[in-house]
Amino acid sequence: MAAKKRRLAQRRLRLWWLLNRRNNRRRLGTWEDWKTRAVFWLGALLVGVVIQGFAWLSEESYGVTQEIFAHNPYLFLIITPLGLMAIAWLMNRFGKASKGSGIPQVLLVHKQTYHWLREPFLSLRVAVLKVFLTCGALLAGATLGREGPSVHVGAALMYKLGCWAKLKQKQVETSLIVAGGAAGVSAAFNAPLAGIVFAIEELQQSMEARTTGTLILAIILSGIVVLMFAGHYSYFGVPDVSPVSIFAYPAIVAVSVLCGLMGGLFSFFLVEGSRAMSSLLGKHPLKVALVVGLLLATMGILSGGSTMGSGYVEARALLAGEAEGSWLVAFGKIAATLLTYFSGIPGGIFSPSLGVGAELGGAMSSMIPGVSPVSLILVGMASYFAGVVQRPVTAFVIVLELTGNNHDILPALMVSALTATVVSKLVMPQPVYHVLAQDLVRGWSHLLKKPEPENPPAENAAGAEKS
């Protein structure tokens, strides 16, 4: 009897040990789970390093542009057209998928079920071209930003790392590309929260509950890398912002409506102009680059260089009180950004949109007494950017993080971004990046269909006999 009880106790102990061991394995995760986490984290660190190098190279490139412009601005009548022609030739020769912002490419490949689309869009060659051609465009005096390209480069790096680690295809599709793109935003702006919100709001269809924590940690790690190299800084500095009075909100809403309308019209003309230029770009890319380069150079000379670059310098000067907003500069920046995008070269619209919003807000501040000019500049940035991308949460979070996280202005930024998004939808019903991604499908339709098998010799012979 005692032996029987002993054996029963041993069986219960063994069963308990086996069940406890299985539960511990579930809690700790399998080897595949840890390999996935390692790819996310190492990839995020790599993205942070690469994007920080990209930021440094782009700043140095534009610094050279400013020096040349100060020495002799008329040199850009030669530099800009020839530079854009060289960029267009290199892009068409070595990687057409590096064209434009890069965010439409990321949206397309993570939603598209055709696996063969990822290689042409997320290859390392395309990522390298994206970096150097974007910096070359800034050096030539074009009007663009590096944040959209940073999203593309980050997604490509994470995707390739996942391929080398031989992770499951579903994980690569639904998480790595999103994490890479969001880490690119985080590292480009030194704004981890903006990267998280961008991943949720712009790429929300690929978010999964079980990988969300890993994805957020990856975004934070990329931001930590930037802090290691560049220290703690705000992209546009830390402007002196006072709380906005409740009586100022009618003025805030008025500014938001105008900026949202301008942002929506910008997106509309960007899409329609890109469609109109697509056939001409396919036939004569170098001629288009030449004409656009001459126009950009002329506008840059007439504006004293204000329409060149990303708009970062002008926006920072406005927020520091060192310059005043200008309607001419705002509209010139809009036109220059559109022309640059129509040329087909790599480059984004994030920073130029923030720069235009700052100019619009600053220009309207002289017409609205009683409201801090800096507050209206920040409202202009958030509302115009929200009007362009129609992502209100991303808009006000980015502006908040890029200007020192002063929460006194947060309610005004939220109201302005939401108002601008509603107004923008009246002229541009769909978000611009999603429309550009749909248009991108048409441009690469030859890759969207599986090659049809050739007819067997017997069928060919039978067809020949019938004929």
Walk me through the structure.
This protein is mainly α. It has helices spanning 2-28, 31-71, 76-94, 103-111, 118-121, 124-139, 147-165, 169-189, 192-202, 209-230, 249-283, 285-302, 312-319, 327-342, 350-365, 373-389, 392-402, 410-427, 432-443, 457-466. The N and C termini lie far apart (94 Å). It has two domains: 36-230, Clc chloride channel, CATH 1.10.3080; 246-446, Orthogonal Bundle (Clc chloride channel). It is globular, with a radius of gyration of 26 Å. Residues 457-467 have a biased composition (Low complexity). Residues 448-467 are annotated as: Disordered.
What is the H/E order?
HHHHHHHHHHHHHHHHHHHH
Instruction: Enumerate how many helices there are, as a single number.
Output: 20
- CATH-scheme architecture of the largest domain: Orthogonal Bundle
Strand content: under 5%
How many beta-strand runs? 0
How many domains in all?
Answer: 2
Category from helices, strands and their pairing: mainly alpha
Q: Residue share in helices?
A: over 70%
User: So what's the oligomer here?
Assistant: single chain
Apparent shape: globular
Give average pLDDT, whole number: 83
Protein name: Chloride channel protein
Keywords: Chloride, Chloride channel, Ion channel, Ion transport, Membrane, Transmembrane, Transmembrane helix, Transport
Organism: Spongiibacter pelagi
Biased composition (Low complexity): 457-467
